[in-house]
Design goal:
Radius of gyration: 16 Å
Distance between the termini: 50 Å
Oligomer: single chain
Number of strands: 5
Structural class: alpha/beta
Number of helices: 7
Number of domains: 1
Helix content: 40-55%
């Protein structure tokens, strides 16, 4: 069975991240979406909220599961669960350079794990969680962010930021 891991903080899950998950679901027999926590980041949504949003957005994908990373290096977590690939989405040249560096470091830690890079469609390449959060505030922001978030995530996002209209 070909198993891959797609990791991120997904705060929140965007349509760009969901595209990578759907693509990976078609590419691999099993895809584990691994929720990482970067100690350098302040999260809008809790770990359990992010897991719930990912699960509800991926309910149509029977070969996708969601797990928190915990304290392991991603490549070691991947090996523990039997995954041989890391799936990564790249939006631009900066992402590519970063992912190549990460691939090299991951390979130094655990050469048994390979990295597959995928390029989302043009209309999704500028979308990131921080980009979506930057849209909050001006009148009409709720409709604007709706274009970038899966429906279940949009509902939770609106609930989290409901007091920010017209700032």
């Amino acid at each position: 069975m070909r198993t891959a891991v797609y990791a991120g903080s997904f705060d929140p899950l965007t349509k760009g991240y969901l595209w990578v998950i759907e693509y990976g679901s078609a590419l691999f027999d099993r895809l584990i979406v691994c929720l990482g926590n970067n100690p350098e980041k302040r999260y809008t949504f809790s770990e359990s909220e992010r897991i719930s949003m990912i699960e509800s957005s991926c309910i149509h994908l029977s070969n996708v599961s969601v797990y928190p990373l915990g304290k392991d290096f991603l490549v070691n977590f991947s090996e523990k669960i039997g995954a041989k690939w890391l799936l990564r989405g790249i939006r631009n040249e900066n992402d590519y350079k970063y992912e190549v560096d990460m691939r090299d470091e991951n390979n130094a830690i655990n050469p048994a794990i390979n990295t597959t890079l995928v390029l989302p469609p043009l209309e999704l390449r500028r979308v990131s969680s921080s980009f979506v959060k930057s849209l909050v505030g001006p009148t009409g922001w709720k409709e604007i962010v709706e274009k970038h978030l899966p429906p279940e995530v949009h509902k939770k996002f609106i609930g989290k930021y409901s007091d920010k209209e017209g700032l």
